[in-house]
């Protein structure tokens, strides 16, 4: 999935640059390239959203593991102090 997201971002950047180039040089088919540029922006946003969600997932997984280690470590101490 990461490869697809990277490809989407790269394709989006290429389409956005192409649309800007068509606008600057007054190409005849500017409207087509303008639409492709908009699609490129959607690709860029989608790819970056995937990576943002992946990063948030990694942080939450690390935090869950840290909480499990903390609870495991302190549950043993509580049992020892109760005796």
Could you explain the architecture of this structure?
This protein is mainly alpha-helical and 83 residues long. It has one domain (2-82). It is built from two helices and no strands. It has helices spanning 2-24, 30-82. Helix 1 (2-24) runs antiparallel to helix 2. The longest helix has 53 residues, at 30-82. The protein is rod-shaped and about 75 Å long. The mean pLDDT is 84.
Unreliable stretches (pLDDT < 50, length at least 5) are: none
For the termini, the CA-CA separation is 52 Å
Quaternary status: single chain
Portion of residues in beta strands equals: under 5%
Query: In one word, what is the shape?
Result: rod-shaped
What is the alpha-carbon Rg in Å? 24 Å
The number of domains: 1
Alpha-beta classification = mainly alpha
Mean pLDDT: 84
Number of helices: 2
Largest sheet: none
- Number-wise, the strands total 0
Order of helices and strands: HH
What does the secondary structure layout of this molecule look like, with pairings?
Blueprint: H1 2-24, H2 30-82
């Amino acid at each position: 999935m990461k490869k697809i997201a990277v490809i989407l971002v790269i394709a989006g950047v290429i389409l956005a640059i192409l649309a800007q180039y068509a606008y600057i040089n007054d190409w005849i088919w500017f409207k087509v390239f303008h639409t492709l540029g908009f699609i490129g922006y959607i690709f860029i946003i989608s790819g970056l959203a995937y990576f943002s969600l992946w990063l948030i997932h990694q942080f939450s997984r690390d935090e869950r593991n840290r909480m499990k280690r903390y609870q495991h470590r302190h549950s043993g101490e509580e049992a020892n102090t109760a005796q």
